[in-house]
Design a protein that fits this description.
The protein is an alpha/beta fold. It is globular, with a radius of gyration of 14 Å. It contains three helices and five strands; from the N terminus they run βαβββαβα.
C-alpha cells in the first residue's frame, strides 16, 4: 500500500519547513509549512542527542507508522509536515503519541503555532 504522503528527502525542504509553524509536544515537535500545491509531504528528523542508532531507528519507525495512520485523516493539504523527535518520544505510549499528533495538527491547521525561540538565547540547561 502506498504511503498517504510524499517523503521529504532534500535538506532544502526541511529548512523550508522550519520557517513554518512549530507545535511542540512532549514526544516530538511538529513543523508545518505550506508548500504551494506540492501535496501532502512529511519528513522525520531524529538527532544523535536522542540515543544510539538502534534507539533513533526505533523512533523513526514509530513516527513513520504514526504518520501513515494519522496524516490521511488529519494532515493539512498542500503542507510539509516534519516531526522532530524528542528524548521522551521513544518510551511514550503509541496511543498517546497519536493523540498528541492529532492535537498538534489541529493547532497547526488553526494557525496556532508555538512562539519561535529567540535567536541567541541560551537553551534550557545550556550555558
Amino acid at each position: 500500500m502506498p504511503a498517504p504522503y510524499t517523503v521529504l528527502t532534500r535538506r532544502s525542504d526541511f529548512l523550508a519547513a522550519n520557517r513554518g509553524l512549530r507545535v511542540a509536544r512532549p514526544g516530538f515537535v511538529l513543523l508545518a509549512n505550506a508548500n504551494r500545491g506540492q501535496g501532502r509531504r512529511a519528513g522525520i528528523t531524529v538527532t544523535k542527542k536522542i540515543g544510539n542508532a538502534v534507539v533513533r531507528n526505533r523512533m523513526k519507525r514509530r513516527f513513520r507508522a504514526l504518520l501513515r495512520e494519522v496524516l490521511p485523516a488529519h494532515g493539512l493539504a498542500d503542507t510539509d509536515h516534519v516531526l522532530i523527535g524528542r528524548e521522551t518520544g521513544v518510551e511514550r505510549e503509541f496511543s498517546l503519541l497519536r493523540e498528541e499528533l492529532v492535537a498538534a495538527l489541529a493547532r497547526a491547521g488553526a494557525g496556532k503555532g508555538d512562539p519561535a525561540r529567540r535567536k541567541g538565547a541560551p537553551r534550557k540547561g545550556k550555558r
